[in-house]
Structure formats: structure tokens, C-alpha cells
């Protein structure tokens, strides 16, 4: 089985790569950072490509080099938090182009290979931010909401290819670790119904399930892995 993970050289993406390899997949990794790609190649022996998913021609060229594909994991994404009154439109365009158009580019050009597989799937990464309506996130939350809509649309349009999405909540990675230093970890943990901050493995285990035959009757779903954050506000006695 062959899988492609975008943004797979660090953070949640790196853990997804490791989990899929443990499940028996051969994994190809796209990432915009050539240096972190070297680590993935060294540690896992993966085929790697330095690709900016927002550039359709680069995506098309890289995917054309894959012999086959059974699972596409659209993990690549960026966020540039800015309040509305001072945000830079050009910066927010990069968020939309990477998160939404990047997901679109990869799925479009992977489709011919996925259609040749007897059991193929697309797994898009969204975020709990699409539901929690936090202020000052610029286009990030909106981009993730768009990905959820595309997930449901594609599950109908591309069937029998299964299309699902996974939405991480608060997760500690290299990129977010500074948000949980000192007292912040305890404060943020208390805001989670399960009273802990997640790790990349919490997300990768769900991605692995959705990529496996165990989920063969699941499509068009958005699964939040967030300790209960998107379930709603807790009740008061």
C-alpha cells in the first residue's frame, strides 16, 4: 500500500508518516522545507519531494513521479493569526492558497492514481478552530471550514474513494510548544474536557484508522480529536 503525506516532515505530519509506516504503508512525503525532509528520509527511508502544495504545477510534477497511490493525507497547512483591523491581505492569501488550494491541488492530481486502487482514501486535516470561533485567526479557521465542506463534497463526488477529515484540537508540536510553556500548559489543559493537551500520536492513530480497512464503511465524516473541545461548553451545577 502506498501513501502520500503532505507537510509530513515535522509535527503531526511526521507522526502520521511514522504511524502509516508501522501499519505497512510505503510512504512518500511532500514538504516545503528541504532540511526537515532530510530527517524524514534518513529516519524512515521515505521518498521525499520538496513541494509547495499551493503551486499546482509543482504538485502535478511530483505526483506524476509516483507509481501508485492508495492513501492521500492532505496535512500541509499554515496559520498566520492576525486581528481583522490590522491584518495583511497578502499574508492571509498565503493561508488560503496553502490550506485550501493546496488540498485541492493534491487531491485533483492524485485522483487518477487513487482511482486505480482497489481501496483508496483521502484524509484531509482540518482543525477544531473551525468550530470554536476564536478571534484573531485571520483566514485560518475559515480555510479549515472550507476543507470540511470539500471533504463532504468529495465523498460524494469521488466515491468509492473514501474521503474523511480529521480535526486536531490543542496539540503540542514543535510549532506550538511555546504556547504551552509554564503555567499556560495547566491553564489550557483545564479548558479541555479530558483535562489534557493532545500529542501528535493522538492524531496519527485516527488517521491510521481511517486509512485502514477497518474504516471501509466510513466516508464524508469529520472526526475531531480534541479531548471534547468542540462538543460545547461544559454544564454548571
Describe the protein in words.
Helix content is 42%, strand content 15%. The chain has a single domain (2-171, 201-226), classed as Rossmann fold, CATH 3.40.50.720. With 237 residues, the chain is α/β, with parallel strands linked by helices. Helix 1 packs across helix 8. A 7-stranded parallel beta sheet has the order 3-2-1-4-5-6-7, sandwiched between helices. The chain is globular and about 50 Å long. Helix 2 links the parallel strand 2 (26-31) and strand 3 (47-50).
Keywords:
7-stranded parallel sheet, Rossmann fold, alpha/beta
Write the layout of secondary structure elements.
Elements: E1 2-6, H1 11-22, E2 26-31, H2 34-44, E3 47-50, H3 56-64, E4 71-74, H4 89-114, E5 121-125, H5 129-132, H6 140-157, E6 162-168, H7 183-190, H8 200-211, E7 222-225
Parallel strand pairs: 1-2, 1-4, 2-3, 4-5, 5-6, 6-7
Helix pairs in contact: 1-8, 3-4, 4-6
Amino acid at each position: 500500500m502506498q501513501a502520500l503525506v503532505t507537510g509530513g516532515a515535522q509535527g503531526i505530519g511526521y507522526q502520521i508518516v511514522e504511524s502509516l509506516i508501522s501499519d505497512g504503508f510505503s510512504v512518500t512525503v511532500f514538504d516545503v522545507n528541504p532540511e526537515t525532509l532530510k530527517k524524514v528520509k534518513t529516519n524512515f527511508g521515505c521518498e521525499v519531494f520538496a513541494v509547495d502544495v499551493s503551486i499546482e504545477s509543482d504538485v502535478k510534477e511530483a505526483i506524476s513521479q509516483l507509481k501508485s497511490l492508495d492513501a492521500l493525507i492532505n496535512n500541509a497547512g499554515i496559520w498566520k493569526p492576525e486581528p481583522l483591523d490590522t491584518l495583511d491581505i497578502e499574508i492571509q492569501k498565503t493561508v488560503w492558497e496553502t490550506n485550501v488550494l493546496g488540498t485541492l491541488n493534491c487531491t485533483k492530481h492524485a485522483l487518477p492514481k487513487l482511482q486505480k486502487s482497489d481501496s483508496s482514501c483521502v484524509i484531509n486535516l482540518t482543525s477544531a478552530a473551525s468550530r470554536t470561533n476564536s478571534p484573531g485567526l485571520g483566514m485560518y479557521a475559515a480555510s479549515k471550514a472550507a476543507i470540511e465542506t470539500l471533504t463532504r463534497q468529495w465523498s460524494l463526488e469521488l466515491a468509492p474513494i473514501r474521503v474523511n477529515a480529521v480535526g486536531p484540537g490543542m496539540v503540542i508540536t514543535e510549532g506550538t510548544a511555546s504556547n504551552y510553556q509554564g503555567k499556560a500548559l495547566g491553564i489550557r489543559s483545564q479548558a479541555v474536557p479530558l483535562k489534557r493537551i493532545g500529542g501528535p500520536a493522538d492524531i496519527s492513530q485516527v488517521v491510521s484508522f481511517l486509512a485502514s480497512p477497518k474504516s471501509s464503511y466510513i466516508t464524508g465524516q469529520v472526526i475531531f480529536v480534541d479531548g471534547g473541545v468542540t462538543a460545547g461548553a461544559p454544564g454548571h451545577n
